[in-house]
Design a protein that fits this description.
The chain has 386 residues and is of the alpha+beta class. The protein has 16 helices and eight strands. A six-stranded antiparallel beta sheet has the order 6-3-5-4-8-7. A two-stranded antiparallel sheet has the order 1-2.
Length: 386
């Protein structure tokens, strides 16, 4: 996305291939074309280039050299801040952000240590904006701004709440918000939704000693969910989810048929959801995958005990939508959905279990789970369910 950001900013004429890199055979075939066996890569008239900053530097020199600085000092400063982002800030992703997506095991001690370092780095950046500069070097955006924006984006979306942003680095936050609202950043990344509350990994690494007991004791202190106080329901959501998730033979239809016989519309409700694309969103598959994942990662893990959802990316090339069909306890939209940072950008419609078309909608979303299945005239490209 950083390369796209640069390309849109300098109006570089490049073709972008939106590939599903979870297809490892395709991924490996691409990697073979790159000097470093890494992605992304750029095919040029001189040969292929890989690594994002190298690609962006090439594009900037070709289309808009001032993006790299207008004199020897500015060029050095641009490189300085790119190195700072790559060598210092990016490393903090490993312990703070990657565990959220289960890309790495969460270790609280390491995460706390990296969080302290990260705050120190951002306070250093904050000082660069003390004299009212709009960008890191002054009034004009450079490649340093683009690279730093990309490294900070995950932290601003998933880790640093408004209170922390405003108290520790308000000027840096203003710089970040200015960039995230530019047409080029929106076209490259889509919406950047700032964090209301930090997203924490539940993939905890805790020794089964006093620490573990302390964690268990702390867990017991949690307030009961308001959904626990609803009248008892005859529908066993946990049993349904177990049957659904354990079915590996393509017989989801039988499970859904049983679901309709057991469903309790007084105790549970069904909902259709869709993310509201901005005008320039919905064009790139990988970006819509990110929107889907960011929304789901903001769903409180405890709420998943009261809900089941099938949420995916559906569409045709250049016209993608993030949609899903959910069931949850109660008949109103619960706080866990309302408090999600994406809530204001979602269309949420309650379904009627007595309506045949609504039933068919549920059937379609909950049984057509394979890539390239078609629902509502749209092809399924990416899917999550729990």
């Amino acid at each position: 996305m950083e390369v796209l950001h640069t390309a849109y900013l300098i109006k570089a004429k490049i073709d972008f291939e939106d590939a599903d890199l979870r297809d490892f055979s395709k991924r490996n075939s691409y990697a073979e074309k790159t000097p470093t066996a890494t992605l992304p890569f750029l095919e040029t008239e001189y040969g292929n280039i890989s690594e994002s900053v190298s690609i962006e530097t090439f594009l900037a020199k070709k289309y808009k050299p001032e993006l790299l600085g207008t004199n020897i000092f500015e060029r050095a400063k641009v490189n300085q801040w790119i190195e700072f982002g790559s060598c210092e800030i990016q490393k903090c992703l490993n312990e703070i952000i990657y565990p959220i997506f289960n890309w790495k095991e969460f270790n609280k001690d390491l995460a706390d240590s990296e969080n302290k370092k990260l705050k120190k780095y951002l306070i250093i950046l904050e000082k660069e904006f003390e004299h009212g500069k709009k960008y890191i070097l002054g009034d004009k955006i450079t490649l340093a701004d683009i690279v730093l924006f990309r490294y900070l984006r995950y932290f601003m979306m998933l880790h640093f709440t408004e209170n922390i942003r405003n108290s520790l680095f308000p000027k840096l936050t203003k710089w970040f918000e200015n960039i995230m609202n530019t047409p080029e950043a929106i076209e490259a990344y889509g919406r950047t939704i700032l964090c209301k509350k930090p997203i924490k990994s539940l993939n905890l690494k805790i020794d089964k000693t006093k620490k573990f007991k302390a964690y268990e004791k702390e867990s017991e202190k949690k307030e009961k969910n308001p959904l626990d106080f609803l009248p008892p329901s005859s529908f066993d959501l946990e049993s349904f989810k177990s049957e659904f998730l354990e079915e590996k033979n393509g017989n989801k239809e039988q499970i859904i048929a049983k679901f309709w016989k057991e469903f309790d519309p007084k105790g549970y409700s069904l909902w259709w959801m869709e993310y509201q694309n901005l005008e320039k969103e919905g064009k790139k598959l990988f970006r819509m995958n990110n929107s889907k994942n960011f929304f789901l990662e903001r769903i409180d893990e405890d709420f998943k005990n009261y809900a089941f959802g099938v949420h995916g990316v559906y569409g045709n090339e250049g016209d993608y939508k993030v949609r899903g069909v959910w069931i949850w306890r109660g008949n109103e939209i619960p706080k866990e959905i309302k408090e999600n940072d994406y809530f204001d950008y979602m269309t949420i419609k309650k379904l009627n279990s007595n309506n045949n078309s609504d039933r068919q909608l549920v059937n379609n979303y909950w049984t057509k789970l394979n890539k390239n299945d078609k629902i509502d005239g749209r092809i399924l490209f990416d899917l999550s369910y729990f």
